[in-house]
Amino acid sequence: MGASRAYIASLHLGHVKCNPSYGIKHVIQNVKDQTGYDVPYQKTWYSLKMAREIVYGTWESSVQKLPAYLGAIQKYNPGTIVEWKHKGFQASTGKYVMGYVFWAFKPCIDGFQFCRNIISVDGTHLYTKYKYKLLIAAAMDGNQQVLPLAFAVVDEETYPSWKWFLQQLSQHVIRGRRGMCLISDRHSGLIKAVREGPDFVSPHEMHRYCLRHVCSNFNSTIKNVVLNDLCWQAGSEYQLRKFNRIMDEIKKQDVKSFAYLDQINKEKWTASHDGGWRCGILTTNMSECINGVLKGARRLPVSALVEIT
């Protein structure tokens, strides 16, 4: 018969509470060490789900308590920003349906004034049955330290959600600071939101692409390791003559590869044409490192996620 799901869950409550990244492989090994029992994968999955719900609650209960939780943060941490955008009102329950929620902590907003004039944004999946997304904005100070600026949970990573997130970021964090540069991947909704919004367009602000994402998209199309390496060299080269030499080499090896890169605005992806806006930052590593720190938390209900941020 083996151990029940409830028993397996009870063995791991402390682990789940202390380590949001505690996963299935950890449960299987821990049960094996304690009982000698090999837990089937499916039973492990349900047991871990049960343990997380005991510790953190369900997604539904977490969403219900989120307004009160964020309100308490604002009360005891004055200056923290919280903004909501609801999908609509559910008459049967008398409650609003959550669409987007944005939050930025006061110490992070204050710390931004000591950071470089560049913000990295990124979006990632939450591992829940409702398929919400987490949007992240981060900055870097002169000592190469990363500062998380703002977060949002949205129902989809689309033009409307990115537009709303950038509006909140501009209003509550940037607050009129000039000379800003936004660096991101080439998500179509994000590009449209930047292009049609007033916040990151020339001549006072700029939008740049993450070079790693440009190279990744290039490699997905071209599928050539040598050319992909040349793509990175071209994008990261600061001297114009060296950039041109690398592009000539790409053209010599494959005209289609050259044409693919040549049709992308060079100011957006190359250091040689950037004009100094990037502050030497070529990728979205700032926001992606925050994403990596939160990897385990992305499996948790939304209130627990907010607490860990």
From TrEMBL:
The record's section on InterPro entries has: MULE_transposase_dom
Outline the extent of the MULE transposase domain: 119-217
The entry's protein name is MULE transposase domain-containing protein
Q: What is the lineage of its organism?
A: Eukaryota, Viridiplantae, Streptophyta, Embryophyta, Tracheophyta
